[in-house]
Amino acid sequence: MNKGKLLIFSAPSGSGKSTIVQWLMNEHPELNLHFSISCTTRAPRGTEQNGVEYFFLTPDEFRQKISENAFVEFEEVYTDKFYGTLRSQVDTQTERGENVTFDVDVKGGCNIKSQFGGDALSIFIQPPSIEELRRRLVGRATDAPEVIEQRLAKAEYEMTFAPQFDNVVVNDNLDVAKAEVYQLVKDFLAS
Question: Is residue 4 a contact partner of residue 98, using CB atoms and an 8 Å limit?
């Protein structure tokens, strides 16, 4: 069995990244894509189970793993609210031949790519413009105006990372962006 590869997707909020990743995973089982199971210090929600949706750790357990350099990427989103991906989990999944898929922020994406080099493909999904991103975020009707402004400011910053990715796909037409991402992934997995 061939060892799996890593696929890294990053984008500003509202760019369509999660839509494209979900489409790839649902409509193209031949690509053998699997999300890595991340760690978090938040409490399980609903029917979430340890080792299925997440590995649930205490903040102290998470910090211990940070000190052991056990993560390929992690972030403290709020005080004592950590999320991260264990290197051991990635290794287990790739050894099984799974192509491990990451839907991560730009810094996490760059960190994973720097650690795995040619075994990872990094794709940045970019909105056509900040104005279009504003229109999409307003159209979602899920955020207050000040939250939208914060997301737009963050998006401008995140877009400065695009040149560090292997490929940049501009999502101004979702079907075209899906086709472009599919071809990039298919070619990478075949190489």
Answer: yes
